[in-house]
Predict the 3D structure of the following.
Amino acid sequence: MERSKFTKVENKKTLKKEAFEWILTLFIALTISILLKSTAFAMVQVKGSSMENTLLNGQKLFENRLIYNFAEPKRGDIIIFNKEEKSNGILSNITSELKETYNNIIGYQDDNILIKRVIGIPGDRIDIRNGYVYVNGVKQDEYYAKGKTYPYVKGNGYPNALTFPLVVPKGKVFVLGDNREISLDSRIIGYVDYKQIEGKVLYRIWPFDKIGSVYNNS
């Protein structure tokens, strides 16, 4: 009988120790993740097909999170942003990072995090006519490089819910997905505020046969 009580006490101690170690490990993991993700770089995964054929579903990207602290977004930049939240200081950023890290742990992907291409910057006059994009009256030849005929866009662009032409306000950008016919972008959600932008896509790091820089035409 005495041994049974002793065993129960030991089991409780073991469970408490394991619980403490698990909580401590999770806390350390969260802290490291926040420190890494809140500084210069982060990894993000492509979700959906709105950036085809430039970026495909499931590909993993390397993101520069500091670049827009020193420079404003440029036309052609591929950016990562939160379509709902705006940064309101350090506490807000830490809260967002905690939530994002927790979502990663449980395998949930936040639908508010989007990857799109900057088409218009403050002051630009944007128009969409007959499936083509015009910036400041100039029809955009959206190709990977000068002299090449392969476009980075897929499908034709249409105005959707917006009335064109329009002028991009100060402190905001107009974004489109490269897969123009199925993208949730500024034609539906409106302009993206600078404060919503998390960073700029630099490299594709997965899959291995696709590793390399991601084309930004800015």
